[in-house]
Fold this protein.
Amino acid sequence: MTRHTPPPPAAGCRNAPVLKQRGQHEVFCGLTGIIWLHRKMQDAFFLVVGSRTCAHLLQSAAGVMIFAEPRFGTAILEETDLAGLADAQEELEAQVERLLERRGDIRQLFLVGSCPSEVIKLDLARAAERLSARHAPRVRVLNYSGSGIETTFTEGEDACLAAMVPALPATDRRQLMLVGALPDVVEDQALDLLAQMGITDVTVLPARHADSDVAVGPNTVFALTQPFLGGTHAALERRGARHIPAPFPFGEEGTTAWLRAVAREFGVDPARFDAVTDAPRARARHAVAKATETLNGKSVFFFPDSQLEVPLARFLTRECGMEALEVGTPYLHKGVVGAELDLLADGTALSEGQDVDLQLDRCRAARPDLTVCGLGLANPLEAEGLTTKWAIELVFTPVHFYEQAGDLAGLFSRPLRRRAALKLEAAE
Ligand code: SF4
């Protein structure tokens, strides 16, 4: 197959110096993950134990579910709870009892901690344990934190999946586990490609239903589909599973490298690999090429937000011809993104964590053609004449694997095209 991406850089960025900053940061909290997790896990309920602010965040981000019974809600901590004047623990358990009595469709219940529940040190682990003992095997009750204290918005999914791992049954089966909540249609595409290569003993975490046959053990190998799953990665290793390190399935190159790493692990014949991937690779390249007409030669600056920054920088620089001026990421977990760093051009500026004012100064000085950042920074930067892309859109839009490669590139080319159109209008 013809190469369409440049050869890997001589050294890459795995051992490159990283600017580490621990100042004020601008991010969303982990509750945001509930928006996509509740769609994925079709018999789960997410009960946020939080304040009215948490309820508003969820409601405005997710919209109102009109036609279905909602699968997330907020148990509001009132001022009396926060002041320690009421037994919030008892009231929470009573609320869960009422919920489970009313909703026979719930098979997994997540008690999701928030800033307020953490501040008053509500013991959600103990509540989950007690409720699980009462309602097993019909309902499994787990807890995790979605609080915004020192976390980024994608850590909610990581915390949720990591909480599920200790409860998974043990198995000695030789199997592949795909880890990360993908839209069903994208997950099906991945499973289909793997099946065509003969890899069929595959489980997915999180599964669509609680009674799916997901188990873990020493013969489980797992491939992450999202780069923000460091906690889940560690939890699976504690259960004896082994990680298959690979670039992430973004764009043609990333998807091929991800599939190749899995295929090697399962001894798939290279000719069969090519036969399965040649056609979708060509489609992906063709789709990316359309957006590349806009992106080629442009510069991009990443603020740390989604933890997708390193794989996206790799995709944009190697497949779309962009130049990365700074790749900021909340955490740089080399065990997870090491293979991506190997593909980033030597000399790319990397930063971990944030001191937002200093980073804004660097961004203003660099004047990138495109800035990828959180919602809170996008409007002020647009007002200063910079073109931005909201990082959060990347987790709400199907962007993984071959068939979505063009859409992924399109997410970055659209703001540039819009800006150019506005300039034209203004000039007329
Ligand atoms: S968890 Fe914290 S940051 Fe998130 S909405 Fe609630 S109070 Fe705000």
User: Anything to note?
Assistant: The mean pLDDT is 93. The domain at 30-151 is CATH 3.40.50.1980 (Rossmann fold). The pocket of iron/sulfur cluster is lined by residues 29, 31, 50-51, 53-54, 57, 114-115, 147-148 (CB under 6 Å). DSSP finds 17 helices and 14 strands in the chain.
